[in-house]
């Protein structure tokens, strides 16, 4: 599904102030934004369709385990890239307001536009083929945190604790905003580590293309997920919870 919101010849990165907000609000605000990664003379691109927020104070976060050199990005200025290995693959996050708080970029959807033409999509498919070597379908190309990074060639050694770079890796607003947002519990959180917290956010228009469809047949609205208008999702992001610690 091509996206044609952008008709300019060069991407414009989000300003630093965009990231200076609570991780839960930032997780909603990042939905619909476009990650651009330059490889040679090509800009590869994916729209962010799924995010998860993590707070230092809750037990599901890496920061709750304490400061380490590998996790230092979570304690750096908002908007710092934090990367780690998940099931053998690279995983991308960014820090938010409050030491130890951040947002996981969980899934994306390829973008085809004036900056990232069909040849860029073809390059992403070369970087992330199926196990049988055939091109991965576009709708599954970035359907998960490690698939997203593989398709954009974003790797832990290159980008952990780094700042976004307008010349090679950035996130931009191309004018698209989700109409409805799904709020649900995060995926893969071990039992007893605050697995119930509803800090996963999905652009409802792309629910079938994210890591795991939160609108599956066995899922019950009001119990397993909540469907919200985008503005309501932003307002409710931190309701019922304490803000990230500013210390």
The low-pLDDT segments are: none
Helical fraction: 10-25%
Order of helices and strands: HEEEEEHHHEEEEH
Please report the total strand number as a whole number: 9
| Global shape | globular
User: What structural category arises from helix and sheet content?
Assistant: alpha+beta
How far apart the termini lie comes to 43 Å
Tally the helices: 5
Brief synopsis:
This protein is α+β, with helices and mostly antiparallel strands and 247 residues long.
Question: Keywords for this structure?
Answer:
alpha+beta, 9-stranded antiparallel sheet
Outline the structure in words.
The protein is an alpha+beta fold and 247 residues long. The model has no long low-confidence stretch (mean pLDDT 93). Strands 1, 2, 3, 4, 5, 6, 7, 8 and 9 form a 9-stranded antiparallel β-sheet that branches. It contains 5 helices and 9 strands.
List the helices and strands and how they pair.
Layout: H1 23-29, E1 34-39, E2 42-54, E3 81-86, E4 89-95, E5 102-110, H2 118-127, H3 145-152, H4 156-159, E6 169-172, E7 180-184, E8 200-203, E9 225-229, H5 230-236
Antiparallel strand pairs: 1-2, 1-6, 2-5, 2-8, 3-4, 4-5, 7-8, 7-9
């Amino acid at each position: 599904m091509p996206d044609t919101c952008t008709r300019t010849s060069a991407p414009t990165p989000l300003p630093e102030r965009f990231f200076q907000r609570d991780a839960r609000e930032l997780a909603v605000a990042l939905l619909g934004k476009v990650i651009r990664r330059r490889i040679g003379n090509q800009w590869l691109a994916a729209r962010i369709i799924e995010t998860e927020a993590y707070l230092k104070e809750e037990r599901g976060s890496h920061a709750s385990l304490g400061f380490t050199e590998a996790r230092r990005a979570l304690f750096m200025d908002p908007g710092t890239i934090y990367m780690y290995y998940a099931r053998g693959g690279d995983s991308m996050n960014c820090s938010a307001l409050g030491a130890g708080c951040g947002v996981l970029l969980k899934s994306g959807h390829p973008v085809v536009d004036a900056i990232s033409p069909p040849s860029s999509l073809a390059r992403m498919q070369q970087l992330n083929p199926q196990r049988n070597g055939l091109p991965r379908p576009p709708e599954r190309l970035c359907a998960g945190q490690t698939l997203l990074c593989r398709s954009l060639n974003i790797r832990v050694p290159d980008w952990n604790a780094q700042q976004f770079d307008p010349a090679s890796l950035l996130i931009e607003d191309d004018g698209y905003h989700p109409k409805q947002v799904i709020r649900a519990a995060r995926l893969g959180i071990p039992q007893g580590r605050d697995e119930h917290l509803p800090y996963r956010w999905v652009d409802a228009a792309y629910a079938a293309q994210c890591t795991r469809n939160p609108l599956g047949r066995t899922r019950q609205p009001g119990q397993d997920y909540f469907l919200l208008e985008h503005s309501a999702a932003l307002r409710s992001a931190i309701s019922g919870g304490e803000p990230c610690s500013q210390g």
